[in-house]
Amino acid sequence: MKILVSACLVGIHTQWNGDANPIDGVVELVRSGQALFLCPEQLGGLTTPRESAEIEPGKSAQDVLAGNAKVVTNTGQDVTEQYLRGAREVLAFCQAFGIKSAILAARSPSCGSRERYDGTHSGTIRPGRGVTAELLEQNGIRVYNQDNYQDSI
Prior knowledge:
Elements: E1 3-6, H1 24-31, E2 35-38, H2 40-43, E3 53-55, H3 61-65, E4 71-73, H4 80-97, E5 101-103, E6 115-117, E7 125-127, H5 131-138, E8 142-144
Parallel strand pairs: 1-2, 1-5, 5-8
Antiparallel strand pairs: 3-4, 6-7
Helix pairs in contact: 4-5
């Protein structure tokens, strides 16, 4: 069975600031053919680097998916549509290839599986998922992050 992983976790420079966060065990999953990698933000049409973005304060990824909240950059630009497009593309990819689990980057407004930034652009963390992680979970795809990914294999 294949696993989907965030491209930044295998060393591809796709994070908002142009960095990567390679995790040796995740890289090995790709090298061994057990995992494929994508970046939801890039699939949604955002560039790298890009402005940091967060889900509005007090709102959730469920709210974004329902059309009741936005994903906004640190300068106030609405990038909700790009986050939604990227999440839908990742879901379609997983469905097309029979992928049932994903290892996504922690705390991201797209990929966060257990927690994410709170929407104030202050670095404060709160419980909750990112948009892609939420959409995958809603569709029966288990989402892990770099801290608990070994539970996925």
